[in-house]
Amino acid sequence: MIPFNRPHVTGKELVYITKAHRQAQLSGDGYFTGRCHTWLQEYLECSKVLLTHSCTAALEMAAILIGIRPGDEVIMPSFTFVSTANAFVLRGGIPVFVDIRKDTLNLDETKLKGALTSKTKAIVPIHYAGVSCEIEKIKTFARKNKLLLIEDAAHCLGAKFKNKELGTFGAFGALSFHETKNIISGEGGALLINEKKYIDRAEILWQKGTNRKAYENRQVNKYSWVDIGSSFLPGEIIAAFLLAQLEKAKEINKTRKKLWQNYFELFAELEKKGKIRRPVIPPDSEHNGHLFYLLCDTEKNRNKILVALDRAGFHAVFHYVPLHSSKAGRKFGRVSGTMRNTDETSKKILRLPLWIGLKESHQHQIRDIIQAVLVQ
């Protein structure tokens, strides 16, 4: 079986993990956490980065930092993973789901005005597949209406809009290092803090609600509980693994983009015949080769392709079940406008295997199987 994803290692992961053990600190916020923070802050040109145990945790921190309270509304796409909504529901917030664009499958910025109420607190767009949403237009809308902007950049390390890294446009960004992402640590994430006024409190939340950072910096003479917080930080083994990945991030993304481009070219003819649609990359967006998807002409054909690929030993997938139509989405959120594009995309999308080590011959086989299903 050729899997949908296979975690890639650079070669230094175990070396760094061994070094972390020898330094006699496996709990978080040690040497390797610091190295990761420095790397990410310099690479992203970000005011402050805090590693977290997941992208979910980073979003949860952002929800606390912007002061989400029961009844506050947060505009977001329905075509996203559950963490985008859960982070705010946990604070009593109400997700307000809007439709996506047909081209990039990102939040449709023209739907924001219709979703706006006196209770709206924030906008949380996702940059799907490492392709930027209309982030400047969304940021302008947020500023005009005094809303907080939080980027769900789970797919995005190495992806840009107008040569600026995704995740650095809003007050906060959230990255994922889950094993299905380009740069991985098994589980893991990072909160990007782009407005300096939030840094001090973010460090307190990150350290379980204590003033440990201030104590270590000799700004206070006692280490104590001063605010709410949780155990958001990862251990040093996670950070050590991640550092080995970050040091090879450019090479990893370059290789994935080459595989992505192979797929893009292989499916050009089927797109011309109207059988599928390939991803759309806007001129100002630089993607990172995170995932390659096709939009099939019908749900029936998408499902037939999944069966055919599985029989041939290739694991392809589809996602997401739209949040607005899920049990929890109906309970905790509400819909603004129609969800036509979201519903259609969910029925027709097909995600193909993409990981370092996937062979071009595999990609050709996948194309041939899909072509055989669609062209008879």
Summarize this structure briefly.
This protein is of the alpha/beta class and 376 residues long. The protein has helices at residues 13-22, 31-44, 55-65, 82-89, 112-115, 135-144, 199-206, 212-216, 236-246, 249-266, 268-272, 299-311, 327-332, 340-348, 360-374; strands at residues 48-52, 73-77, 94-98, 120-123, 148-152, 160-161, 164-165, 172-176, 189-193, 276-277, 285-286, 292-296, 334-335, 349-352. It folds into two domains: 13-246, Type I PLP-dependent aspartate aminotransferase-like (Major domain) (Aspartate Aminotransferase, domain 2); 249-374, Aspartate Aminotransferase, domain 1 (Alpha-Beta Complex).
Fold topology:
Layout: H1 13-22, H2 31-44, E1 48-52, H3 55-65, E2 73-77, H4 82-89, E3 94-98, H5 112-115, E4 120-123, H6 135-144, E5 148-152, E6 160-161, E7 164-165, E8 172-176, E9 189-193, H7 199-206, H8 212-216, H9 236-246, H10 249-266, H11 268-272, E10 276-277, E11 285-286, E12 292-296, H12 299-311, H13 327-332, E13 334-335, H14 340-348, E14 349-352, H15 360-374
Helix pairs in contact: 1-9, 2-9, 3-4, 10-15, 12-15
Question: How does this structure look, described?
Answer:
By secondary structure, the chain is of the alpha/beta class. It folds into two domains: 13-246, Aspartate Aminotransferase, domain 2, CATH 3.40.640; 249-374, Aspartate Aminotransferase, domain 1 (Alpha-Beta Complex), CATH 3.90.1150.10. The chain has helices at 13-22, 31-44, 55-65, 82-89, 112-115, 135-144, 199-206, 212-216, 236-246, 249-266, 268-272, 299-311, 327-332, 340-348, 360-374, and strands at residues 48-52, 73-77, 94-98, 120-123, 148-152, 160-161, 164-165, 172-176, 189-193, 276-277, 285-286, 292-296, 334-335, 349-352. The strands form three sheets. The chain has an eight-stranded mixed β-sheet, sandwiched between helices. Strands 7-6-11 form a three-stranded antiparallel β-sheet, with no helix packed on it. A three-stranded antiparallel β-sheet has the order 10-12-14. The longest helix is centred in the C-terminal third of the chain and has 18 residues, at 249-266. The two termini are 26 Å apart. The mean pLDDT is 97.
